[in-house]
Amino acid sequence: MEIENRSFNIGQENKIASDKATALLKEFEFLGNTFKKSLSFKEKVRSSLDGQLADFKNQKKDNDHRLETLESNIRIYEENLQKISLNVDELNQKECLIKKRYEGLLKGSLEQDAVVGDAESVEEPEAIADASTLESLIQKRRNFLDNLNENFKRLDAELMTIAKLRKEILVARDGILDKKESAFQKKQKIEEHGSKIREGLQRVSSELEKSIQEEKIITDGLIALLIRIEKCMELSAETDRALFSALTLAESKACFETADKALISENAS
After folding, report:
1. Cβ-contact 53, 212 below 8 angstroms
2. b/e 224-254 (16+ beta carbons within 10 angstroms → b)
């Protein structure tokens, strides 16, 4: 009677243990799949954020290069405008000097005419009658007027050259001012775009940091769980021997049954 009770009890324990093992295996499989899906999702999120971060960094590099180029161009424009300002000042000074010389020649010629007029008013009739002296004076006057005219022509040419050159310089200055204004407008847009890029970098970096922390928590949790399960799977020597013996007998029996079926099948044929 006692052996029957023990047989009944071990049968019940066998069923309970088998059912519990099956349930635990299903639960562990579900838990393992949950961890795998979560880690796979976090890996995709991290990979996507890594790509976005790299893209933002490339955009920032390109934007910084464009901004640097524009700032360099603006500096060149400002240097050229400063040179133009100096050139214009220099031309104005030259023009002022030439005009003073021009006025000096005009004043000198008028004074010379006044001196000649006074001399004529006081000269004796006998002096005027000197033909050779008169011809000499006429020739000197012609030479004087020719030289004076040549001087005025040269000054006129210099003033016209200065005016033309100044006009060309001022036209060039207007062109540089337009380019400088355009560069400033482009710089403003690039700086605004750079601000958006930095905001994007900060946002993606923050999201990536948060995702990494969450992935770390899940990974650490799975590793800790596996370590505990691994420790629980350590069997005693007695249990290990019993399992090995049962499995050996089961396999032997299965082999015998397979051989018997094959023999019966062969005899029947």
Report:
1. no
2. eeeeeeeeeeeeeeeeeeeeeeeeeeeeeee
- Residue of 14, 10, 39 lying closest to 216 (CA atoms): 39
Kindly report the backbone phi and psi dihedral angles of residue 147, in degrees, each rounded to the nearest multiple of 5, phi listed first. Answer: -65, -40
Output the six-digit token pair for 25: 């295996």
Q: Find the DSSP H helices in the chain.
A: 2-122, 125-128, 131-232, 237-268
Q: What is the pLDDT of residues 196-213, one digit of tens each?
A: 999 999 999 999 999 999
Which residues have CB under 8 Å from 207's CB, separation 6+?
49
CB under 8 Å to 211, separation ≥6 — which residues? Answer: 42, 45, 46, 49
> How do the domains of the chain map onto residue ranges?
2-235
User: Which of 54, 51, 68, 52 lies closest to 194 in space, CA to CA?
Assistant: 68
In this structure, which amino acid lies at residue 138? I
Token pair for 64: 């910084």
175 closest CA partner among 57, 84, 66: 84
Average pLDDT over residues 72-86: 95
Paired tokens of 131 = 């033909």
Query: How far apart, in whole angstroms, are the C-alpha atoms of residue 147 and residue 48?
Result: 88
Reading the block at residue 132, the tokens are 């050779």
Whether the Cβ atoms of residue 63 and residue 250 lie closer than 8 Å to each other: no
Give the predicted TM-score (pTM) of the model. Answer: 0.64
